[in-house]
Amino acid sequence: MAKLVKKKKRPLGGLRSSSGGSSVETSPLRPVFVPKTPPCSNACPNETNIREIITTIAQTEESDRSYRESYEKAWNILTEKNPFPASCGRVCPHPCESECNRVHKDSAVGINNLERFIGDYAIENNFPLPKPVEELHPERVAVIGAGPAGLSCAYQLARKGYKVAVYEAFSKPGGMLRYGIPDYRLPLDILDKEISRIEDLGVEINCNQIIGKDISYENIQLNYDAIFVGIGAHKGKLLGIPNEEADNVYTGTEFLNNINSNQVVEVGNKVLVVGGGDTAIDAARVSVRLGADVTVVYRRTRNEMPAIEEEIVGAEEEGIKFEFLSAPVELIKNNGTVSTMKCQRMELGEPDESGRRRPVPIPDDYFTIDTTAIIAAISQEPDFDGLDHLHKGKDWIKADEKGRTELPDTYAGGDALDLGLATIAIYQGRKAAETIHNKFRNIELEKVDELPVIKHDKMLLSFYESKLRNEPLKISPEDRVDSLNKEITSTLTEEQAIEEAKRCMSCASCFDCGSCWSYCQDQAIIKPVIKYQTYKFKMDFCNGCKKCAENCPCGYIEMR
């Protein structure tokens, strides 16, 4: 039974009257707004503020903004960390979406499609990248490699007021974004426009400059105060079996580089691609567009393929065949070129260090496949010619979490460290730029505590209306394979983008639904007059009933 006492002025969590007259014992707990990291941002390799970007669009009409103003605001948030939204919106495998809390309601928010929409809108409307600071610094930085890591580092340093010169071995900048991804996934005019904006900030890009050949590393050291190395992994590996030196045997990176450099590549009418990663699938789909019948040979099963699922499905739609649990053991030549590949059947054994089950050869179980060209897309590595001092033995460059190598004033990122996503390379370039700036300016950063991640079981999913995901249009497999540069997937329409943004549940961030205010019977919550401004608690009125926390759909309110 409730204890009756005379009502007094009380400390937080004491006794109060809830209905005039008598006083009752109340809970000592009080509501608190607790910021948390949404799972999408937590899963993003570049730590993109996804929630703020999407809710900026979703809340446009009630924020008294035009949609153009919201797109520009979202663009500025996005490009704080990534100067390639239109490119990443096309090629990133979007791990953010796999962790989206909306998966437990219906389906993930189309984060990647929204990023692409913002990136394309910015190109069409000539949005510039955020302006550099007015104060220019005397230090000069050299960047070796104009891939996503190098250009990200150069971009961030230019914004902070540094003069940056980029040295690129190939004839055009872009790295793997240009030379490792086919046009049907990433049109070169999109990439070119995003790179040109970085140049507009004053970044100097010098192409056809091979460090160690056209210019010595020592010369770079003499003329610059810091060096960032982002050379990428453009050197493909062969299979290590007899007769692979034949002219009709290519590595995956070599093949895609030649295609993206507009060179004529003769593959004939029956191509075998060895491997199960993105490079293998890209090489296979390009070969189909060259008119070949294509089979992908992979030593594990489809479940273990590391390639992006959408790309595997696309390959299947385009008629590409798969020979799973098979490994090449010998190439057989006829008149100087390989005409047949001998393979051995495999079975899956125990998991290896990657967590995937290890393929084990089945003794005396062999078969052959005829071919006119073979593309080995099993792995790739950086070419350290002229940069031998940056690594030891077969190791690649080693750098810490801030991008620092063992060498003084030398930093590194991207595929020069390990094969990874373009988004990871962009992050590593950005972090190295921050480290370089902090060292130059003698800035000591305070450690920031990580916020907890908000999970779906801490939210009220029933509050949200079920909504179908907005999907972009795709051209049919029959229409897409007749061209090397016909983009398969379109960008969301503006109407689709707005509707998709409204599917975001604003996890652990108030979106002014008013539930807490509606359920509070003690008028302990002050609702803001202006939409989306901060709600406030009147603790003297609160009796700790927990209704506000229990009915906060996004999990922003907790009782403590």
Layout of helices and strands:
Layout: E1 15-16, E2 24-25, E3 31-33, H1 39-43, H2 50-58, H3 67-78, H4 85-91, H5 95-99, H6 111-124, E4 140-144, H7 148-159, E5 163-167, H8 176-179, H9 188-200, E6 204-206, H10 217-223, E7 226-229, E8 235-236, E9 249-251, H11 252-260, E10 270-274, H12 278-289, E11 293-297, H13 309-317, E12 321-323, E13 326-334, E14 337-351, E15 357-370, E16 373-376, E17 380-381, E18 410-412, H14 422-440, H15 477-480, H16 494-501, H17 515-519, E19 525-526, E20 536-537, H18 547-550, E21 557-559
Helix pairs in contact: 2-3, 2-16, 3-6, 4-6, 6-16, 7-14, 11-12, 12-13
Structural description of this entry:
It is a single chain. With 560 residues, this protein is an alpha/beta fold. The protein has four domains: 15-35 and 509-559, Alpha-Beta Plaits (2-Layer Sandwich); 39-129 and 456-501, Fumarate Reductase Iron-sulfur Protein, Chain B, domain 2, CATH 1.10.1060; 140-234 and 397-440, FAD/NAD(P)-binding domain (3-Layer(bba) Sandwich), CATH 3.50.50.60; 235-380, FAD/NAD(P)-binding domain, CATH 3.50.50.60. Helices cover 28% and strands 17% of the residues. The chain is built from 18 helices and 21 strands. The chain has helices spanning 39-43, 50-58, 67-78, 85-91, 95-99, 111-124, 148-159, 176-179, 188-200, 217-223, 252-260, 278-289, 309-317, 422-440, 477-480, 494-501, 515-519, 547-550, and strands at 15-16, 24-25, 31-33, 140-144, 163-167, 204-206, 226-229, 235-236, 249-251, 270-274, 293-297, 321-323, 326-334, 337-351, 357-370, 373-376, 380-381, 410-412, 525-526, 536-537, 557-559. A five-stranded parallel β-sheet has the order 6-5-4-7-18, with helices on both faces. Helix 13 links the parallel strand 11 (293-297) and strand 12. The longest helix has 19 residues, at 422-440. The two termini are 24 Å apart. Mean pLDDT is 93; it is low at 1-24.
